[in-house]
Amino acid sequence: MTEPLVLANGVTRRFRHGDGVTNAVLPASFTVRDGDRIALIGASGSGKSTLVHLMAGLDQPSEGALCWPALGPRTSLRPEQVGVVFQTPSLIPTLSVLENVELPLLLAGREAYDAALAALGVVGLATLADKLPDDLSGGQAQRVAIARALAVCPRLILADEPTGQLDQATAALVVDGLLAFVSSSNAALVVATHDRTIANRMNTTWIMEHGNLHVAPAEAVA
Amino acid sequence: MIRLWLKQILAERYGRALGTAIGLALTVALFCTLGAFVTSASGAMTAHAVASVPVDWQVLVAPGADPMAIAQAIGSAAPPKELQAIGYAESAGFSAVTGETSQKTGPGKVLGIASDYYDRFPGQIQLLLGSLDGVLIAQQTAANLHVGPGDLVTIERIGASATQVTVAGVVALPNADAMFQAVGAPKGTAPQAPPDNVLIVPMPQWRTLFAPQAARSDTVRTEFHVRLDHTSLPPDPSAAFVQVQQMANNLEARVAGSAAVGNNLAAALDTARQDALYAQVLFLFLGTPGLVLAILFTLAVAAAGADRRRREQALLRLRGASLLQLIRLAGAEAMLVGLVGIMLGLALTQLTTLAWLPAGGAGYSLVWLPLVALTGLTVATAAFVLPAWREASQSTVSAARAQVAKKTCPLWQRLYLDLVCLTAAALAFWYTANSGYNIILATEGVTQVSVHYEAFIAPALLWLGSSLLWMRLTRLALGPGRAAVRIAIAPLAAGLTRIISASLARQHPRMAHGVALVALAFAFATSTAVFNTTYNAQSRVDAALTNGADVTVTGTATHQIGQLLADLRRISGVADAEPMMHRFAYVGSDLQDIFGIDPTQIGKATSLVDAYFDNHDVGRTLELLRQTRDGILVSEETVSDFQLQLGDTINLRLQDARDHQYHVVPFRFIGIVREFPTAPKDSFLVANASYLAEVTGGSAADIVLMRTVADPSAVAAAARTIVTAVPGAKVTTLGETQALISSNLTAVSLYGLTNIELAFAILMIGGTAGLVLALGLSERRQSFAVLTALGAKRRHRRAFLWSEGLLIVAGGTILGLVAGLGLTKVLVSILAGVFDPPPETLSIPWMYLGATVAGALVCSAAAIMIVEAHLEEPDLEMLRSG
Ligand SMILES: Nc1ncnc2c1ncn2[C@@H]1O[C@H](COP(=O)(O)OP(=O)(O)O)[C@@H](O)[C@H]1O
Ligand SMILES: [Mg+2]
């Protein structure tokens, strides 16, 4: 068996603000491996985004050990191997759709144009390449964000409520795109969502409750 | 509600409020400082004019009138500080015998003065040789008669026998024009030339001498010389002029025709009020763009937070605030920011005026306080209330983001308003330049002064057209000219060149405004600096002509300094010293200065330029003079007065050193000279020194011109010790002469003005760069968070900021410098009246411009770094919450 992509042991994340402390993530231990399709389900404010950011290496745990045995140390993670789709609209408004998708490739110093166009094709938006983000609908924008995450051919895709602002039909299209990519590349996929129908299309479900992560036993997956 | 709102402003939005207040402070300070400069310049000009007049009034007593009554009338019309009666008597001529020869002059004047006249009216009489106790003889008369202290001079009285006096001293009469003016002559008559021959006699002796001549009352007159009390004069030259004129009118009314006033003080103030008007016009021309820039800057800062304020306002409206309430809130904000800005601005003004205005000048800024307060509050209102009203009265709460430009280009650009403005400016300029007008029309003696304000049209249109053109050019550079932009930012862009240039192109309104603001600041700084340098260079040209060389040594007719030439050449720091003869020659009945030069050598000691000669060729003119032994260069005035043709023989009468008599000498007219070192402005002659020496029987040089390679004042000091042996010899430097003759304008303030404008321009360039980058900071923060999440390193994030900064600052600098030079060219032509002589080319202060560019770059870099620091910690919050 290959090394795990993410390995967490007793990871917590606390936020201090003024007089109080928010425990966004209580001690959590989990493993993510190639080919995993994980739905991270939980109510709003339960700590999903915080956990996704930790897995992406964008944030650091307050306690516990978090590592990426198959990917290397935290600093070298992005954007080569981990593609992140953020909860908020995260396209740069002054760049065209194509340029937005090219951006992570250019930042990594890689050939960008063809890969970006191909990624747009995967989410079915190649025709919108020259449009500006402001001219897109919410669903189109989110699909462009997904294309941007896919463009670098990551081994791990982290999507934070990618369908939060979409209607059912569009949401299904977006998930189709994600699944199509992971099935062809054997990448792992973690989707934070509170939508059961999406969770049902993954093969593992993790449940987040007030910062507590309930991970189904790994054997159940296999 | 208002208090709550203000508290919120202070707590949350103090950044923008402070930025706006600072912009406002700059506006107020610039306005106030310029105002203070104009006011203090006027005051200084009045003081300068007053100080330049040794005798304020010369009151001529009509024949038969009672002098005591006149003196009393003067006392009641304008209580004088000094009042003395002077006797003026005509003489048929003077003569003297020296050695074997006897000399005789034409008609002359004999003055009778009280013994304390020199002390009471300093500057009227300068002692050159001998003593002031006794009979004094004017320098030129002494030369004509070949006499000095101790010699006898015969005065030919009119209607009485000749009489003899003994000369005690030789004097110069620097103020002779006014001293011998025809008081009471009807307006419009040509001013009388001062007499060539003058003797000055103590009053008791004068009375005795001319009592026998009293029967001829037309030849013996009394004048009162008056100094007025200057403390009551208003500081403004125009007002002072009017007051002095009214006092004189009052006196003339009191004495009812038995006296006439020669109003020297009013004449000096008349010139000063013209200069003062020039100064005001100059400040308007050079300062207005700065003010407009400061106001635009303030508005731009206030607009930087437009998105946020729009959202807040929408929220308030949702909670039921009425339009009126919203406007009151904005008004309160404007008031608060306005007051803070005005206070800061006044504090800044105090600093700048203390640093750059002469002592006491700082107080002048307070005169402008009401106007400044009004301006400040108006700008603040325009910055806050107007947008609030516009937003609130637009029906919906649109969240349209201004970051990405709409495809359509602005109306002015589609109408080509920039090119229209520039064309109109060119036409207006062509019209003004060709109408042969003078921007300021002050008819001598007339109280009203008129300014041709239509001359402002061309520069105003030029400024407007250039600003619009800058924006068009920026858009062009970001659009069709993208390739060039890519090349420019490539070194900074860390592999993101294509994307960054595309991103900037989509933000072209912000970029265009940024470039235009920076260009405006640069054009402002450049035009002031170039104008100022050109002005100073011209006053230097003027001084160089007057002084003749870096250092000039002048002897007297009786004591020439030519024999000291070898010693003068040996002074360290002297590159070369060349002698020049200075004699007088009669052209017909007109006595003119004639200069004898060595055409092959003179250029070593002084700079001759093409413009001095009618044929615009120094080399050819001097070569022609060298080849023509008896050649002579004649001034334009003489050529037209005497209808001379090139090649004509001119017969001049020159004094021979051997018999001191005037003899006719033929010269060949070979060229027209307009200006010559040390020569007077009107008419003079230039000939070969060798020929002049041959025909006058003496080669002694009266003037030595010295070119220095070291500090001229040190050379002058050394020269002074050498010439102490020669009585009456004078050593002058270019710098001293410049200080002496430069008009009020330079003396007062152009230097300070330039410094102030430099400081403001640099601050505003840096501020603009920072401002443009800080615009939409919240959107930018989000973009930066995304960039970081996508793997952007620090250098990538910087690439975005610095490319943008580079384009704005470099683009603005280049456009601004070019436009600034063009604008100065126009200003110099329009304000030609302040230049004497008008400049042929602009003088460009490279050092100063370099300093401005460097200062702007440093300031902009600092501004970019501040923005960068604000964006340093990518905010994950932005990516988390919806
Ligand atoms: N940067 C932060 N500072 C303070 N509190 C935070 C921060 N990020 C998240 N939180 C808090 O942590 C909890 C979990 O937030 P989040 O991970 O965004 O939940 P979810 O994505 O499931 O809605 C919330 O109570 C939130 O307020
Ligand atoms: Mg979330």
Automatic annotation (TrEMBL), chain A:
<dbReference type="InterPro" id="IPR003593">
    <property type="entry name" value="AAA+_ATPase"/>
</dbReference>
<keyword id="KW-0067">ATP-binding</keyword>
<dbReference type="InterPro" id="IPR015854">
    <property type="entry name" value="ABC_transpr_LolD-like"/>
</dbReference>
<comment type="similarity">
    <text>Belongs to the ABC transporter superfamily.</text>
</comment>
<dbReference type="InterPro" id="IPR003439">
    <property type="entry name" value="ABC_transporter-like_ATP-bd"/>
</dbReference>
<keyword id="KW-0547">Nucleotide-binding</keyword>
<dbReference type="GO" id="GO:0005524">
    <property type="term" value="F:ATP binding"/>
</dbReference>
<dbReference type="Pfam" id="PF00005">
    <property type="entry name" value="ABC_tran"/>
</dbReference>
<dbReference type="InterPro" id="IPR027417">
    <property type="entry name" value="P-loop_NTPase"/>
</dbReference>
<protein>
    <submittedName>
        <fullName>ATP-binding cassette domain-containing protein</fullName>
    </submittedName>
</protein>
<dbReference type="InterPro" id="IPR017871">
    <property type="entry name" value="ABC_transporter-like_CS"/>
</dbReference>
<feature type="domain" description="ABC transporter">
    <location>
        <begin position="6"/>
        <end position="222"/>
    </location>
</feature>
From TrEMBL, chain B:
<feature type="transmembrane region" description="Helical">
    <location>
        <begin position="281"/>
        <end position="305"/>
    </location>
</feature>
<dbReference type="InterPro" id="IPR051447">
    <property type="entry name" value="Lipoprotein-release_system"/>
</dbReference>
<feature type="transmembrane region" description="Helical">
    <location>
        <begin position="326"/>
        <end position="348"/>
    </location>
</feature>
<feature type="transmembrane region" description="Helical">
    <location>
        <begin position="483"/>
        <end position="505"/>
    </location>
</feature>
<keyword id="KW-1133">Transmembrane helix</keyword>
<feature type="transmembrane region" description="Helical">
    <location>
        <begin position="368"/>
        <end position="389"/>
    </location>
</feature>
<feature type="transmembrane region" description="Helical">
    <location>
        <begin position="415"/>
        <end position="433"/>
    </location>
</feature>
<feature type="transmembrane region" description="Helical">
    <location>
        <begin position="453"/>
        <end position="471"/>
    </location>
</feature>
<dbReference type="InterPro" id="IPR003838">
    <property type="entry name" value="ABC3_permease_C"/>
</dbReference>
<feature type="domain" description="ABC3 transporter permease C-terminal">
    <location>
        <begin position="290"/>
        <end position="389"/>
    </location>
</feature>
<feature type="transmembrane region" description="Helical">
    <location>
        <begin position="799"/>
        <end position="824"/>
    </location>
</feature>
<keyword id="KW-1003">Cell membrane</keyword>
<comment type="similarity">
    <text>Belongs to the ABC-4 integral membrane protein family. LolC/E subfamily.</text>
</comment>
<keyword id="KW-0812">Transmembrane</keyword>
<feature type="domain" description="ABC3 transporter permease C-terminal">
    <location>
        <begin position="758"/>
        <end position="865"/>
    </location>
</feature>
<dbReference type="Pfam" id="PF02687">
    <property type="entry name" value="FtsX"/>
</dbReference>
<feature type="transmembrane region" description="Helical">
    <location>
        <begin position="511"/>
        <end position="531"/>
    </location>
</feature>
<feature type="transmembrane region" description="Helical">
    <location>
        <begin position="844"/>
        <end position="871"/>
    </location>
</feature>
<keyword id="KW-0472">Membrane</keyword>
<feature type="transmembrane region" description="Helical">
    <location>
        <begin position="759"/>
        <end position="778"/>
    </location>
</feature>
<protein>
    <submittedName>
        <fullName>ABC transporter permease</fullName>
    </submittedName>
</protein>
